[in-house]
Input
Amino acid sequence: MKRMTKVLSMMCAGLLAASVFAGCGGSSKKASDTIKVGADIELTGGSASYGKSAQNAIKLAFDQVNAKGGVLGKKMELVVADNKSEAAEATNAMQKLVAQDKVVAVIGPNLSSAVIASTAVNTGAKVLVISPMGTNPQVTVGKDGKTKDFMFRACFIDPFQGTVMAAFAKNTLKAQKVALLIDNSSDYSKGLAQFFEIAFANGGGTIVAKESYLQKDTDFKATLTKIKATNPDMIYVPGYYQEVGMIVKQARDIGITVPMAGGDGWDSSKLPEIAGKTSLNNTFFSSLYSAEDDSKLNKDFVAAYKKAYNQKPDVFAALAYDSAMLVVNAIKTANSTDTVKIKDALAKTAGFNGVAGSVTFDDQHNPVKSAFIIEFKEGAQTFRTKINP
Amino acid sequence: MDMGSFAQQFAQQLINGISLGSIYALIALGYTMIYGIIKLINFAHGDIYMLGAYMGFVATTMLGLSFVPALIFAMVAAGIAGIIIERVAYRPMRNAPRIAILITAIGVSFFLEYGMILIATPQPRTFPPIFEATIYKFYGLIVNSQQILILVISLVLMAGLTYIVNKTKVGKAMRAVSFDADAARLMGINIDRIISMTFALGSSLAAAAGVLVGVYYNSIDPLMGMMPGLKAFIAAVLGGIGIIPGAMLGGVIMGIVEAMVSGFFSSTFRDAAAFGILILILLYRPSGILGKNIKEKV
Output
């Protein structure tokens, strides 16, 4: 019995070794005519919808590139690894992509925590990672304030939305006096408000009131009455949809008719239910993407995406598509499949035209890029304008 | 800010405060009645208010009832829930030390909160627009129809309660039990039934508050009862716990104080002000505004 086990285990080991060699042989043969790019994305778990959109979009991007003859005479090949929406699994997936599949670049994860967790793996292997939606500043910048060499993102960081909305308030809504209503229990809200305040004041506007609330508050009438007395031209509420819905409703209830605006925390189908469709008229929020943007590039993308998957691309699809195209662009510019050269080329990207607006990387590997302003009309999100930096 | 606009601000905040205060008053009534009759701070009372809001939600969305039938449905359902809670959780503890019943009440509170999360998920629900808000303006002040609705319904319910307690046989029995339970029993009053009645009445008032809040704020969730429950408790203590008019007064004062603090200082101090009132009242007038200082019999 014992001997049999031994024989069996030796056979197993032999088989394993054979499969490993076979794997190596296969990939080295294939490597000659394809360029492999990895996707470390959320195909299962709590954020599975993010990963699904990303996978669809990257696949579409590479199919389009390949149909036009590929890059450097080779075809783009996508290798997908599921990170199960978890930081630990993201690290395993990254390990597999860089060590086993030998990809030249990785797209994903979307979750900031997952990107941060897997940073050491791809940095050790000198392979760049571009996260389509990792908004946490620490994705690209370490605690010491130094830029992480191999880390990029395709989205703007949260506080940038405040800057964008300040420009919109000043230039489009012609607001001079703005009141801020901040969710004091959220760093996101405070960050947006801070950047809004700086940009709006620099543009010559005045902040006439600065009030705050806490998550789970339900009565805002007293605070809104106070704000109303300062006669603002606009109220900036960079919170989440739950409280924002009640704030907008109660503001309209007490006769505040001026525009109200916020960030992408407003982006929820629940908002029109809570606030009421008519109350939401004359409100705006900033977003990374709108499928209704009428640039030719975006129209083509939306049409192709709809044709391939029979649905409208969401923000995750758009940013993943841009990430894929940024990588392709970097490989072309580098004119090489050397991972470090691709990284250097990506860092120098300037004026790249994506479906979610133009991209230029700053020295912290954050894209300086366009933002979209969405307006609510009778409860429906409609594209209002695109603001370029 | 000139004087005119200050007065206007003040009046507007008063309106905001009174509508918020009526809600606190309705919840505080249940606290005070239950305390009056069995000397129990029913910490599950805020969750009965939540239960009432959900019953109203069920009535309007699933059963398709309009506002008044939905309000009555929620009040009846919560009244029954109140009776069951008393029967299952508090009656077996009737002779246990007070601290044991208090802890049981906290247990019931958690049971209701997390039981509702299990059934209805923690996601907030939005009430269907069964009572549209129309805005009325006069002398620069703004009142909307929902605020008037809250005030009118609260007043009607409080008047009804006062009538029941003071003019009916059940009310007389309640007062008797509250005054001296043993003597009441000797007089042939069925104490258990009277206590059940008290829980039913108190719970249905909280449920009415829940439905009104659902209509007013348009959003309900399983943990919505925590804060208003505590605030209503403070209102009951402020007015003098065990005293029915005291609960109404305390509720309205709490609402006005909160509106004034948010309106003239900062909304982040609002809760601090509410709990500050509790500390002050316990330090300087523990029997509450309307309470008489009666020495407890030992």
Confidence is low (pLDDT under 50) at residues 18-31 of chain A. DSSP finds twelve helices and 15 strands in chain A.
